[in-house]
Amino acid sequence: MQIDNRVNGKTKVIALIGNPVEHTISPYIHNTISSLLGHNLIYVPLRTDKHSLEEATLGLRALNISGFNVTVPYKREIMKYMDDNSRDSLLMGAINTVKNTSGKLVGYNTDAEGFLRSFKEESGEGFEGKRVMIIGAGGAARAIAVKIAQEGAEKICVINRTISKATEISETINQNIGNIVSAAEYSDENFYNGFENNQIIINTTAVGMYPEIDETPLNENYFESHHIVYDVIYNPRTTKFLQQAIDKNAKPINGLGMLVYQAILAYEIWTGTKIGSKKSREIFDAISSMKI
Length: 292
Ligand code: ATR
What we know:
Elements: E1 12-18, H1 26-37, E2 41-47, H2 53-62, E3 67-70, E4 84-85, H3 87-92, E5 97-101, E6 104-108, H4 111-123, E7 131-135, H5 139-150, E8 155-160, H6 163-176, E9 181-185, H7 188-192, E10 200-203, E11 228-231, H8 240-247, E12 251-253, H9 256-271, H10 277-288
Parallel strand pairs: 1-2, 1-3, 4-6, 7-8, 7-10, 8-9, 10-11, 11-12
Antiparallel strand pairs: 3-5, 5-6
Helix pairs in contact: 1-9, 4-5, 4-9, 9-10
The protein binds 2'-monophosphoadenosine-5'-diphosphate (ATR).
Residues 136-141, 160-162, 165, 186, 204-207 line the site of 2'-monophosphoadenosine-5'-diphosphate.
């Protein structure tokens, strides 16, 4: 019989806490990275009940875990249990990555930087001087909007079903980064007005995610060929929203790159290893070809 020696006394453990965690593909990404780099590190999802979040956080520290990811629905709530949070994550109002340095827990947000890297990689463009529309005003929208503002966008319009959440994002950015964000309610009229003046349109809502694959945040197809259209959804790879973009010869990008790059950035934080662009691309290609 073959001995399974993948885990031994020196194995570094990285966890994912959230609820639910059963459908996550993050273990595939992180364990692929650790195999590729020859690191003795294993990544395990741990479903955490909402009443046990503080205990779970203290427990992970007590067990001297190297670090962990945080997913839905705890990305904001867990910040209060950290010894420190990065400045960016305070503006974004959420963390997804925690590093344990000698018992000190520090929270980071790699979702936004992961989005930025994947956008640049797949479009060949950046955000400087660009006009951007963001659909949705949840945690993902907020992190992405902060990052795009920091990158020097000219204008950002946040459109959301609940206007107060869009306004909250615009106020945070206008007060802390630059007066460039407007907020609007989710309506055909607000989508239509000035839509063609944007260069980049980003869907951050779950509308169109499997199994509701026939849904899209846009009732009418307002896309034009000059648009770059990003959907944070990666299942399915081509959402109806991205299909609308394809139908108008616009450039479609799905959320798989964001998922892979936020993971690569988190891995870099935990291990101090720099994963170059060639290896990052290899990891992205491997995960892209996986059936999910
Ligand atoms: P995430 O962390 O992934 O951003 P979230 O914080 O729950 O998730 O935010 C989800 C966003 O999608 C919200 O902006 C939500 O709109 P509301 O603020 O009005 O709730 C938006 N959203 C979700 N389902 C939607 C739907 N069916 N139509 C329009 N917007 C929707």
